[in-house]
Amino acid sequence: MNKVTLFLFFMIFSASLSGCSTTINNHQGSLYIQLGEEQGISRLVDSFIKELAKDKQVFPYFAKASVSHFRKGFINHMCDISGGPCKYKGDNMVDIHTGMNINEADFNRVVELLVKAMEKENISYRTQNKLLAKLAPLRSEVIKR
Predict the structure, then answer these.
(1) Is residue 26 part of a domain?
(2) Which of 21-25, 90-94, 133-137 is predicted with the least confidence, judged by mean pLDDT?
(3) Is 38 among the domain residues?
(4) How far apart are CA 84 and CA 27, in angstroms?
(5) What single-letter DSSP state applies at residue 87?
(6) Other CB atoms within 10 Å distance of the CB of residue 23
């Protein structure tokens, strides 16, 4: 099992254990606040886009995408998934990724690039782990579609 897969497994397992704790929504402890609200999420997405653009392994998946459309949709999705005030109204993950034939190695590479972007934005490891735990369930909707 490679490091990214092991990490995602650990995050999903940890998230399932924390299901008994009090839910934190839209106040100081929320993931949205920890990410820096809309401005912080925008900076993170911008850093992530720069990482994608520099990466020869996964850039081909994004080469023909509209950067502004991707940016807007990903910011909105991150805002929603982190408990922010946004409601994601874009296409679902299956529709977006069908026909892309994303393999596990490339999926894992995108996760690594997101982690790299979070590190560049000085997002704490705890907050990174919370975000990755929110995104991990989407994995099956992305790979080999």
Answers:
(1) no
(2) 21-25
(3) yes
(4) 9
(5) -
(6) 8
Residues of the domain holding 109: 3-16+34-141
b/e string for 66-105 if b means 16 or more Cβ within 10 A?
eeeebbebbbbbbbbbbbbebeeeeeebeeebeeeebeee
What's the token pair of residue 110?
């995108």
Partner residues linked to 25 by β-bridges: none
In a domain, 29, yes or no: no
CATH number at 136 reads 1.10.490.10
Residues 66-119: tens digit of each pLDDT: 999 999 999 999 999 999 999 988 777 776 776 777 888 988 999 999 999 999
Location of structure tokens 């949709």: 73
pLDDT value of residue 143: 87
Residue 25 lies in a domain: no
Q: Is the pTM of this model over 0.85?
A: no
Q: Nearest Cα to 109, choosing from 81, 143, 69?
A: 143
Length of the chain in residues, anyone? 145
Please count the structural domains in the chain: 1
Q: CA nearest 131: which of 74, 87, 71?
A: 74
